[in-house]
Specification:
seven-stranded mixed beta sheet; five-stranded mixed beta sheet; 2 domains; single chain; 15 helices; Aldehyde Dehydrogenase, Chain A, domain 1
């Protein structure tokens, strides 16, 4: 049931009280917390998967893989803590011979404070209660309050019980973690004075509303939102000639994966006019068996969008049904010209959360590049080209539109790694940071410099003797522990 304002205040106040305790906790203590949560989630995987299958209609293999990804993320952030590099410890010793004279300066990253996390609809584990936002915040010493998603409420509540029990058993302070429910609770949460940052995965409209609330507070806070993304794909004429049927099969598999409910779904594909790729995609589509989408709201929105597409004079339905079954969805392939997209980008390049993709026919490089400039920011951009294609200008253009540029692959699937970038220009995200991979922790840290501080008052990471044995930059040079 929805969290009352009074209960939310109690939860947020407890997180605020816990914040200095988490900030002072050692790296080994925080590692133990994350590992304990991962271990307990793995132990309850069968129970959680059964609940999530009932609520989301996702299959066992998908959910089992997602639980593994979730616990892998937790252990990955635990490993991140071990070498201490995430603290970015930096020391510049005092020098009297500089102009102006330099005092003793010592800088590191510290926890930002209690973090609000807004769970996603399409990932009941990896972007939910114990997902990457929660893991990265706890890793750097920030208490977490999660606003759960109503699309998988029972799964979320049970996951929260398991996380809370694991943290308590591992010795984490009370107030380190909690959940709230309901739309109004989410609004109050992002505005609560105890909250110092927020992470969000969801729609452009919902994320923008919360972003505006976070920015309009008397004390504005960072809001790290992952919002909408059409993830443009470009296929060159030579690529179609070399391996058109293979590319068509890959696209069909990618945009229908998970019934098209991935944020990295290839939603717009630029194809050479007259090359016959549209026919190849239609032939590669799987049998149109209706799939139940994550929530009734998502299903009704997809059905309405496909109905509107049927009446749009600039769109052609190349495959699939414009009239979708109630509560379910079947794949739809739409077609449009590059000229029409340039004329009406806001309408034709809208994201469709479901199994639909738009094939945009372009006539030559100039036509393609002009149209790509009308594309908004995305999480990913993909190029399929032949070995002798000159695509340098194309790649430079796509690099301005996305946070990850792929070659000869498909964007669905986001590896959890140090070098991952899951974020991009607006409206893909509200910031330049990633929400996947170890550097996601940087969102929930802030820099602090100590000037001419007494040695006894310095944190261990900045003490001269380096008791933590971590890498540090000293007087401009990176120094690794012996």
């Amino acid at each position: 049931m929805p969290t009352t304002p009074e209960h939310l205040d109690t939860i947020a106040d407890a997180a605020e009280a816990a914040a200095p305790l988490l900030a002072r906790a050692s790296g080994d203590e925080r590692r133990a917390w994350l590992d304990a949560v991962a271990d307990r989630l793995d132990a309850h995987a069968d129970e959680l998967i059964a609940l999530a299958a009932e609520e989301t209609h996702l299959d066992d293999a998908r959910l089992r893989g997602e639980v593994a990804r979730t616990t892998g993320q937790l252990r990955g952030f635990s490993d991140m803590i071990q070498d201490g590099a995430y603290l970015e410890a930096t020391i510049d010793h005092a020098r009297a011979d500089t102009a102006p004279p330099r005092p003793d300066l010592r800088r590191l990253l510290i926890p930002i404070g209690p973090v609000a996390v807004f769970a996603a609809s399409n990932f009941p584990f990896a972007f939910s209660v114990a997902g990457g936002d929660t893991a990265s915040a706890l890793a750097v010493g920030c208490p977490v309050v999660v606003k759960i998603h109503e699309g998988h409420r029972r799964t979320s509540v049970r996951t929260a019980e398991i996380v809370s029990a694991a943290l308590r058993a591992a010795g984490a302070p009370e107030g380190s973690f909690a959940i709230v429910e309901g739309r109004e609770a989410g609004v109050r949460l992002v505005q609560h004075p105890a909250i110092r940052a927020a992470g969000f995965t969801g729609s452009v409209s919902g994320g923008r509303a919360l972003f505006d609330l976070a920015s309009s507070r008397p004390d504005p806070i960072p809001f790290y939102g992952e919002l909408g993304s059409i993830n443009p794909v470009v296929i060159t004429p030579a690529a179609v000639a070399d391996k058109g049927p293979e590319l068509a099969r890959g696209l069909a598999g990618s945009f229908t994966l998970g019934s098209g409910q991935f944020c990295t779904k290839p939603g717009v594909v630029f194809v050479p006019a007259g090359a016959g790729f549209e026919e190849l995609v239609v032939a590669a589509l799987p049998a149109p068996e209706p799939a139940t989408l994550l929530t009734p709201r998502i299903a009704s929105a997809f059905a309405e969008e496909m109905s509107e597409a049927q009446s749009d004079p600039d769109l052609e339905i190349l495959a699939g049904a414009a009239t979708q079954e109630s509560g379910a969805a079947t794949p739809v392939v739409l077609g449009a010209s590059a000229a029409a997209v340039r004329e009406r980008p806001g309408a034709l390049l809208a994201e469709h959360f479901g199994p639909a993709t738009l094939l945009v026919a372009y006539d030559g490089d100039e036509d393609l590049h002009r149209t790509l400039r009308a594309v908004e920011g995305s999480l990913t951009a993909t190029v399929h080209a032949a070995a002798d294609d000159d695509i340098a200008e194309l790649v430079a253009l796509l690099s301005t539109k996305a946070g990850r540029v792929l070659f000869d692959g498909w964007p669905t699937g986001v590896a959890v790694a140090w070098s991952q970038q899951h974020g991009g220009p607006w409206p893909a995200t509200t910031s330049i940071h990633t929400s996947v991979g170890m550097t996601a922790a940087r969102r929930f840290q802030r820099p602090l410099t100590f000037q001419d501080a007494p040695a006894a008052l310095l944190p261990d990471a900045l003490r001269e003797e380096n008791p933590l044995s971590i890498p540090r930059r000293i007087d401009g040079r990176l120094q690794l522990p012996h």
